[in-house]
Design a protein that fits this description.
The protein has about 140 residues and is mostly helical. It is built from 6 helices and 2 strands; from the N terminus they run H-H-H-H-E-E-H-H. It is about 65% helix and about 10% strand.
Amino acid sequence: MAGTQTTKTSPSLLYMVKQVELVVRSHLDDLVRPFGITALQYTALTVLERHDGLSAAQLARDSFVTAQSIADLVRSLEGRGLVRRERNPHNRRELLILLTDEARELLTRLAGPVRELEDRMVGELTAHQAEQFRQALSKAWQALS
């Protein structure tokens, strides 16, 4: 048809963010699998590394999983000796989830390989661009939270 032209549009930012999330998750799963954990379990452990002693609800929110998923995830990590649960001294009905020394050692061993993965992800960016990327992602998250 004369005069008809198809234009290619760029993928939406939401699509691109999802692409990055999926490829990061795949690489992270490959990286942590030899240590007997999943990317989701690794994420939960890093959340506890930053804020040890969270309730299951808090850990679920900060790890981006449902309450049901976090229950299964914590049971699995507890069975592996990577977390333990203790009663909250300020609310005896609440259990707090804490990292074990074994989990801290595992996170230390994974720190270098995870940093290399992140460096690879932003390898084409300057240090300034990588920091701008970090800030932009933070602002996008805040806008939707």
